Amino acid sequence: MSKGGNGDRCECIYLDHNATTPVAPEVLQEMLPYFSQRFGNPSSVHAIGRQAKAGLREARARVAALINASPEEIIFTGCGTESINLALKGTLLPAVGGALGGGGFSNGRSHAITSAVEHHATSHTLDYLSSFGVETTYVPVDRYGMVDPDEVRKAIRPETKLISIMHANNEVGTLQPVEEIATLAGEYGIPFHVDGVQALGKIPVDLCRLGCTFYSMSAHKVYGPKGVGALFIRKGSRPTSILQGGSQEDGLRAGTENVPGIVGFGKACELAREGLTREVEKYWRLRSILLRLVEEVDAVRLNGHREHTLPNSASLAFAHVDGMTLMLNLSLRGICVSTGSACSVRSLKPSHVLLAMGLNEEAAYSSLRFSVGRSNTEGEMERVVEEVKRLVLKLRLVSEARSVGVCGPDCPCYFR
Ligand code: PLP
Predict the structure, then answer these.
(1) CB neighbourhood size of 308 (10 A)
(2) Per-residue pLDDT at 311
(3) What separation in Å is there between the alpha carbon of 218 and the centre of ligand 1?
(4) What are phi and psi for residue 265, nearest 5 degrees?
(5) Probe target for ligand 1 pocket from 79, 124, 170, 197, with the most ligand atoms within 8 Å of CB
(6) What is the structure's pLDDT at 3?
(7) How many other CB atoms are found less than 10 A from the CB of residue 392?
(8) DSSP string for residues in 125-192
(9) DSSP per residue over 283-349, as a string?
(10) Helices 80-95 and 120-130 meet at what angle, rounded to 10?
(11) What's residue 403's pLDDT?
């Protein structure tokens, strides 16, 4: 059984690390003094304020070190979603002379390019921006969820003001060719935002090599606290602030900083950097055990890419099985997985990511996402494989029986 990050016994096998991770004990330890001892406002110039400011400074350096950037290129925000909003709105609204002001290169026309498999933090922000006249092209993906850089090139227009593509997909794990897209964006002089929320801490990220303009991050995906994010902004670039108020974070994020949270994020990044090589190897091993399901059970398909993927993620389609029913049955057996992204599960719509990859609705509804993490063991994966196999066979029998009218919807064999 996995142990929770704070040392409490967590009586489940938690395989939903792409939704969120527990706060690592070392992270919590480092945060605690900032609640009641070093509680100062970092904008205060007295000793207590300076302690808090020092905490921010160290955290900024630690986040920057994980992505090979300079501390001055890191702006702390309230979450990954806010970082994405800052990059997108702060770049695209001034281009249409939008409500946030900022002027700059306003010519009244603004166009953005993104992919069909982005997180809603990106796609819903671009939907919102359409009411300000920002047009968006959604480039398609292949059957593994991968963008073709040529499609991005074809979508570029004279008025293209931003390209935004995720580094790693949260549902299927597929990695995007962000290095090639960065080169392309550079050729045309177009700012390039990368949603790095899922990639951070799971694969090496080197922003000296990856020539993007913005890179969004979130603490709670890397064993840090919820409610903290960061945006990398390359030297020489400056989005317009989307919050008006104080001059915190170089005037780009008004509001007193969440010092304990930011300190925790810094520590989480330090731990991620120290453990990355070891953890990546372990994730590949655990994932390969899970992928035995594809070989050992009929009609099970890996949705994402086999190699160009986050090492911790596998999205599997189980033909003739309802993913939600399988997920609930696994939960009853102490195994926590997800039917898709944590944010879309409430909508009960088939995943837009899987549909964009060409799956039909039935296959999309039959898919589950497994995302392993630090505390998982090979023994746990063996158990998960056995439980999933048993349940899939059973649910298929049930659905066959239901289709000839033997089982009703309340049949107890659904939950055994
Ligand atoms: N981008 C991706 C790819 C994500 O997976 C998530 C969260 O699941 C976000 C952005 C949003 O991050 P946050 O929850 O910190 O707002």
Answers:
(1) 15
(2) 98
(3) 7
(4) -60, -45
(5) 197
(6) 47
(7) 23
(8) HHHHHHTTTEEEEEE-B-TTSPBPHHHHHHH--TTEEEEEEESB-TTT-BBP-HHHHHHHHHHHT--E
(9) HHHHHHHHTHHHHHSTTEEE-S-SSSB-TTEEEEEETTS-HHHHHHHHHHTTEE-BSS-TTTGGGTP
(10) 30
(11) 62
Residue in 290, 348, 291, 294 with CA at minimum distance from that of residue 322:
348
R_g of the chain computed on alpha carbons: 22
What pLDDT does residue 113 have?
A: 98
* Res 76: pLDDT: 98
Distance CA 81, CA 9 (A): 30
Which residues of the chain fall below pLDDT 70? 1-10, 98-107, 341-347, 401-416
Task: Quote the distance between the C-alpha of residue 127 and its chain's center.
Answer: 19
CA 342 to each of CA 17, 205, 325: distance values in angstroms, whole numbers, following the listed order? 10, 24, 16
- Distance, in Å, from the CA atom of 230 to the CA atom of 218, rounded to the nearest integer, reads 6
Q: Is 413 a catalytic site residue?
A: no
Note the pLDDT of residue 107: 54
Q: Is 373 in the pocket of ligand 1 (CB under 6 A)?
A: no
Q: Who's near 406: CB < 8 A, 6+ residues apart?
A: none
On average, the pLDDT of the chain sits at 92
How many whole angstroms separate alpha carbon 48 and alpha carbon 42?
A: 8
Polymer length in residues for the chain: 416
Q: In this structure, what DSSP letter does residue 3 have?
A: B
CB atoms within 10 A of CB 51: 18
Q: Give SS3 for 379.
A: helix
Structure tokens given for 384: 């998960």
Q: Which of 293, 315, 317, 295 is nearest to 304 (CA)?
A: 315
The pLDDT of residue 399:
78
Q: Could you say which of 10, 336, 343, 407 is catalytic?
A: 343
Amino acid identity of residue 187, one-letter, is: E
The DSSP letter of residue 16 is B
Residue 107 exposure: Cα atoms within 13 Å on the Cβ side? 8
Which H or E run contains 14? strand 13-14
Closest ligand 1 atom, CA of 168?
A: 3
Confirm or reject: Cβ of 170 under 6 Å from ligand 1. Answer: yes
Pull the structure tokens for residue 86. Answer: 């800052």
Tokens of 173: 């794990």
